Amino acid sequence: MTExxxxxxxxxxxxxxxxxGMYREEVPAYxxxxxxxxxxxxxxxxxxxxxAARLSAxxxxxxxxxxxxxxxxxxxxxELSTMRxxxxxxxxHPVGYYDLSxxxxxxxxTAFRPVDPAxxxxxxFRVFTSxxxxxxxxxADLRAQAATVLEGRRIFTPRCLELIxxxxxxxxxxxxxxxxxxxxxxxxFRWHEKAHVSADLYRRLSDAHRLVADVVAFKGPHINHLxxxxxxxxxxxxxxxxxxIAPKAVVEGPPRRAVPILLRQTSFKALEEAVAFExxxxxxxxxxxxxxxxxxxxxxxxxxxxxLYDRLLxxxxxxxxxxxxxxNAARYVETLQDVFAGFPDDPDTLRTEGLGYFRYAPTxxxxxxxxxxxxxxxxxxxxxxxxxxxYEDFLPVSAxxxxxxxxxxxxxxxxxxxxxxxxxxxxxxxxxxxxxALYAEAEAASLAHARAELARRAA
Length: 459
Ligand code: OOG
Ligand code: NI
Fold this sequence. Notes:
Blueprint: E1 5-6, H1 8-26, H2 28-47, H3 49-57, E2 68-74, H4 77-89, E3 93-99, E4 107-113, H5 117-122, E5 126-132, H6 140-152, H7 158-170, E6 173-174, H8 175-188, E7 194-198, H9 199-208, H10 210-216, E8 225-228, H11 233-239, E9 263-268, E10 272-278, E11 284-288, E12 292-297, H12 303-319, H13 329-339, H14 347-352, E13 358-362, H15 375-380, E14 384-388, H16 396-407, H17 421-428, H18 435-458
Parallel strand pairs: 2-5, 7-10
Antiparallel strand pairs: 1-6, 2-8, 3-4, 4-5, 9-12, 10-11, 13-14
Bound molecules: 2-oxoadipic acid and nickel (II) ion.
């Protein structure tokens, strides 16, 4: 008899838990932050029963306490394509292409995450995954040296690679192998105190860009943050100092609103960690790599809504560019609020103007009209309810802000905008899924299901 496979959702949930346990040990402030977020979430839900009901209706209430995203930075195409296969074992697939070169960070990225609504509500664990672009480094000598170092490293354990092969061949993993897989995969994301380059090479890499040193100098792509989801980011931000954690000056993303949209994020500064270099009798140095972050997620926007968001954000940032030292933070926040007055802030307008994605469900009420009427009519007649679909992805401008604040303020550089999605997909060995297509599909499926239900009840 063949043993049944453990579902990818279950493997992902176990892996996310294991990662959280490891990070809690490596970065104690993470544990403090998680506790603070849990407290604020419980208070927010208690004070806002409507929010609790809405989250429950969209199957999100149960997932929130375990919801995390992490981030890693990879060095080669081979690492990226193997990472794609590793994440596929736990039901995580590449969604979206993010070009961060525009923002002065020499990487391009995708997010590995579950894609279908049931998998998302089981456990939405995501990993923002960046690939270093050595082609953006000017010094040809250093570029070649970095490439040689990267070619020589092995970031996956041999057993992990075997288990990935096995999962692909058999279409899944049985219990013992699933357990082994979680343990072996975790090794790839662990922090290494010992760099595998000399102090001299580290300095040259770091001078080219701090991020280059972070990727090239280490044996593996240490997880650099793990982010819990809060229901009130301003409350957590305000209370972080009481817990001895200093957040960055401004929350990235849209301003506080009645209907949260997209994603708001804030982080605390990277830890300065002791690093031993190769040779030179293990010379000691310091490296900042790992940090903490929290996020609040809101309504996923349609391309139209996203375009409006991009335009307003650019306008706010043109009026006041947030300074790295936080000196104009209050003025920036005020400007952001003013400019975003141009973005409708009630659920009905957002829906009827086609700015956001919604999930439809029958209310239980029926009438004599056709279930094939416009969705807006069905909602207006009280037959359907429409709940915001949560944004499950990332924002390039925010991501750049998070990178910058954690690489150190001197790290800003300008590169030519040079999106290179085709090359990224070739390196990945697969296309990235278009995120708007996923939301549109989820919305359409919920509407079709709700209409069928109305038809059934009318019959
Ligand atoms: C990734 C930064 C992006 C986010 O939440 O936008 C990110 C990194 O620093 O590697 O995690
Ligand atoms: Ni993040």
